[in-house]
From TrEMBL:
One of its GO terms (biological process) is methylation. InterPro entries: COMT-like (IPR016461), COMT_C (IPR001077), COMT_dimerisation (IPR012967), SAM-dependent_MTases_sf (IPR029063), WH-like_DNA-bd_sf (IPR036388), WH_DNA-bd_sf (IPR036390). Residues 143-246 form the O-methyltransferase C-terminal domain. The keyword S-adenosyl-L-methionine applies. Residues 27-119 form the O-methyltransferase dimerisation domain. SUPFAM superfamilies: S-adenosyl-L-methionine-dependent methyltransferases, Winged helix' DNA-binding domain. GO terms for molecular function: O-methyltransferase activity; protein dimerization activity. This is O-methyltransferase domain-containing protein. Keywords: Methyltransferase, S-adenosyl-L-methionine, Transferase. PANTHER family: O-METHYLTRANSFERASE.
Length: 262
């Protein structure tokens, strides 16, 4: 048998056995965007919440489609099945196939451990908002300009939107909300680990978070270390979204919102 032949044709006569592996590697790299976009679709459809709510553990695409809050009436079990098959091939969900009464394949899906980071109903912070941020249309269009940006001159984002990202966010409340949701979830994940492992806040009197977003990091730290006065420093349009932490904490706690001069 000739190991250099893939799909009936010799793709690199000099390649040897590694050739198929490197071809698959290249194929995987080229098509990897499909995973991010399918995750986005699954998040939009509410698939991860529906899977984790399924009491039976494993569900067919029909059962799953019936539980999705966003589905059109009578729509889409076949499309949901396609989404689930792709997710199964990347181990986001597990798929078990059984033969039905007429010998047809019946696929059932259940969540893999990674789903806890993609659903919003597992009782902790979620990476779903980060997935929605990275695949947002305003960011995806900017990626189209990466090659041009690498040749020199303006950043990909400025080529696409005419202004730097910070300025664009200041003019676009929709996108600012998408980014802030993502940032808050990441901050909660990182800060809870920080608070578990780092014990250097005891002697801190005033803590300034530069680029602190809407203040979730400082909120967590000052809730634990109530003697700390927190100052959250960010751009005015970000600060405008920040909740007032005053009143949520004891009187010794003070939370200033300071806007950058930019
Ligand atoms: C990666 S985000 C960090 C988010 C934040 N740690 C949180 O928990 O949401 C970077 C932050 O830096 C802020 N930033 C960027 N340029 C700034 C500037 N010149 N002055 C103050 N903040 C700035 C952005 O508005 C953004 O909120």
């Amino acid at each position: 048998m000739d190991n250099n032949i893939v799909g009936g044709s010799r793709i690199n006569p000099a390649g040897g056995e590694d050739d198929e592996e490197t071809w698959l590697h290249a194929w995987g790299l080229i098509t990897s965007f499909a995973v991010s976009m399918t995750l986005k679709a699954a998040i939009e459809l509410g698939i991860f919440e529906a899977l984790s709510n399924a009491s039976s553990g494993a569900v067919t695409a029909d059962e799953l489609a019936a539980r999705l809050p966003t589905m059109d009436k009578g729509g889409g079990a076949a499309s949901v099945d396609r989404v689930m098959r792709l997710l199964a091939s990347f181990d986001v969900v597990k798929c078990v196939t059984e033969a039905g009464p007429s010998g047809e394949a019946i696929r059932q899906y259940r969540p893999s451990p990674v789903c806890r980071w993609l659903s919003s109903n597992h009782g902790g912070p979620s990476l779903a908002p980060y997935a929605m941020f990275t695949t947002d249309q305003d960011f995806l269009t900017a990626w189209q300009q990466l090659g041009a940006a690498a040749r020199g001159g303006q950043t990909a984002f400025k080529r696409t939107h005419g202004v730097p990202m910070g300025e664009h966010l200041g003019r676009n409340p929709r996108l600012l909300g998408v980014v802030d949701k993502a940032m808050v979830q990441i901050s909660v994940m990182v800060t809870s680990k920080l608070l578990e492992r780092f014990h250097g806040f005891d002697d801190v009197a005033v803590l300034v978070d530069v680029g602190g977003g809407t203040g979730s990091t400082l909120d967590m730290i000052t809730s634990r270390y109530k003697h700390i006065r927190g100052i959250n420093f960010d751009l005015p349009h970000v600060i405008s979204l920040a909740p007032s932490i005053l009143g949520m904490s004891p009187p010794s706690y003070e939370f200033d919102l300071v806007s950058s001069p930019c």
